From TrEMBL:
Primary localisation category: membrane
Provenance organism: Undibacterium arcticum
SUPFAM superfamilies tied to this protein: Outer membrane efflux proteins (OEP) (SSF56954)
UniProt xrefs under PROSITE patterns: PROKAR_LIPOPROTEIN
Descriptive protein name: Efflux transporter outer membrane subunit
Subcellular location field: Cell membrane
Keywords: Lipoprotein, Membrane, Palmitate, Transmembrane, Transmembrane beta strand
Source organism superkingdom: Bacteria
Statement: the UniProt record of this protein carries the keyword Nuclease: no
Topology in membrane: Lipid-anchor
Similarity comment: Belongs to the outer membrane factor (OMF) (TC 1.B.17) family.
């Protein structure tokens, strides 16, 4: 059971001065305010002293010129630079995150406004009468005019309003981190799609050369068959190999179109209005300095967002606990009332009031305690989510460091394999022309050469996309975000 609507301690008066004891009491209550609830402390999380997979990596230094705004320029691709510049302008996911951040900032201003008095101006006029109009009955009517200015203020005695402001501020900071995450995610996805498209172009060029070679091989086998030197099976094998390769080329054409469409959507364009012409692929893989694991907690926007949500949950505990204490409210008004407009602002017709009200819930079957328990459980959930985000971030960095190290070694081995396979293919074709081997041996050599070439291109693309993933895992740059 809760108390009825609170009544001001001081009733309305006309000309008597406000009691000084009430003013003293109000100031005493306001100045003795103390916030209930736990003070926020950033939760601890697993934090290794060094990355296991870093090995010979160069640590990041304050002199590093790169920041999270233009990390893609390290890949030295002017077309990629132009595409990335369109992310902030046209990407709709980023636009939605920007709007969410603006909404969170507006909520902070709204919560902060609740800590100040509310002042209102009221005015009105009424006409009333009585009597039935009979011979022996009295009748009459009159006017009444009122004008007053009033104010109310809820002193933040228990810190509820202050914690609401802090909670909204932490929420806005989490929203800002979400915006940074959305921007970094869109930038990384665009870079990966772009490099995948250039990889597809390189594979199509490789297949174009391969198709030319297979067409020449088919002509050789056809000529040998016409001269009764080779069997029909040689011609059929050459035809099968050529047709399969041409089919693979069409598959790459479909894959390239899908990547082009994805890039168009990322920069806010309709796929039908966007095209990227094939160009020579510049395989640039930048050296990425890696800082200490402790700096990752300051750079990663997803970690920042998770930590700020812990702060939000912490403030909610104090807000819930403040319900155990009475709500206090100050009210004051000053105005005039008269039966004639001309006499409305006369000093003899002024009215004022000043009051302090209090309301306290006496019994609600444990609902307040349940809300406090709910807030504490929500805080524990936010802490666990923060710690899991930190662990996942360290895993991302370790995974990409290991992948980068291995792919660098694989690229050199695949390069050697591709060169050797090309030589074997040429030697096998020469020996077939001389009648020393069957065409099956030629097909085997050609298939191996084609596979080695495609594997080399794949590894080169993987090194670029892994570099992008490592940059994202490091928070988008080498410097600590402001």
């Amino acid at each position: 059971m809760s108390l009825p609507k609170p009544v001001p301690f001081i009733a309305a008066a006309r000309t008597a001065p406000a009691p000084s004891t009430l003013v003293v009491a109000i100031l005493t209550v306001a100045l003795s305010a103390c916030a209930v609830g736990p003070d926020y402390q950033r939760p601890t999380a697993a934090e290794p002293t060094a990355y296991k997979e870093a090995q010979d990596w160069v640590p990041a230094a304050p002199a590093d010129a790169l920041n999270r705004g233009d990390w893609w320029t390290l890949f030295e691709d002017p077309i990629l630079n132009q595409l990335e510049a369109a992310i902030d302008i046209s990407n709709q996911n980023v636009a939605a995150a920007i709007a969410a951040y603006a909404q969170a900032r507006a909520l902070v201003r709204e919560q902060r406004a609740s800590m100040f008095p509310v002042i209102s101006l009221n005015g009105g006029a009424t006409r009333s009468g009585s009597g039935g109009g009979g011979i022996n009955s009295a009748s009459g009517s009159g006017n009444n005019y009122q004008m007053s200015i009033g104010g109310s203020w809820e002193p933040d005695v228990w810190g509820r309003l202050g914690r609401a402001v802090d909670s909204a501020s932490a929420g806005a900071q989490a929203s800002a981190a979400d915006l940074a995450s959305a921007r970094l995610s869109a930038q990384g996805e665009l870079a990966v799609n772009y490099f995948s498209l250039r990889q597809t172009d390189a594979q199509k060029r490789l297949l174009a050369d391969t198709i030319d070679g297979y067409q020449r091989s088919l002509q050789i086998t056809q000529n040998r068959y016409n001269a009764a030197i080779a069997t029909k099976s040689d011609v059929l094998q050459a035809q099968t190999q050529l047709a399969n390769t041409q089919s693979d080329d069409l598959g790459l054409t479909r894959q390239r179109a899908q990547l082009e469409h994805a890039i168009a959507v990322l920069i806010g364009k309709a796929p039908g209005d966007f095209a990227l012409a094939p160009i020579a692929w510049k395989v640039t893989v930048p050296d990425i300095p890696v800082g200490l694991p402790s700096t990752l907690l300051q750079r990663r926007p997803d970690i920042a967002a998770a930590e700020r949500r812990v702060a939000v949950a912490n403030e909610q505990i104090g807000i819930a606990q403040s319900a155990f204490y009475p709500n206090l409210k100050l009210n004051a008004s000053y105005g005039f009332g008269a039966s004639q407009v001309a006499a409305l602002f006369s000093a003899s017709n002024n009215v004022w009031s000043l009051g302090l009200s209090a309301a306290q819930t006496l019994f609600n079957a444990g609902a307040t305690s349940a809300r406090v328990s709910e807030a504490r459980a929500s805080h524990e959930q936010a802490v666990a989510s923060y710690r899991q985000t930190v662990l996942t971030a360290f895993q991302n960095v370790e995974d990409q460091l290991a992948a980068t190290h291995v792919l660098g070694q694989q690229q050199e081995l695949n390069r050697q394999s591709s060169l050797a396979a090309d030589q074997v293919e040429q030697q096998a074709l020469n020996r077939y022309r001389a009648g020393q081997i069957s065409y099956t041996d030629v097909v085997t050599a050609q298939t191996a050469a084609r596979s080695a070439g495609r594997t080399l291109i794949q590894v080169q693309a993987d090194r670029q996309t892994t570099a992008v993933a490592l940059i994202q895992s490091l928070g988008g740059g080498w410097q600590i975000a402001p």
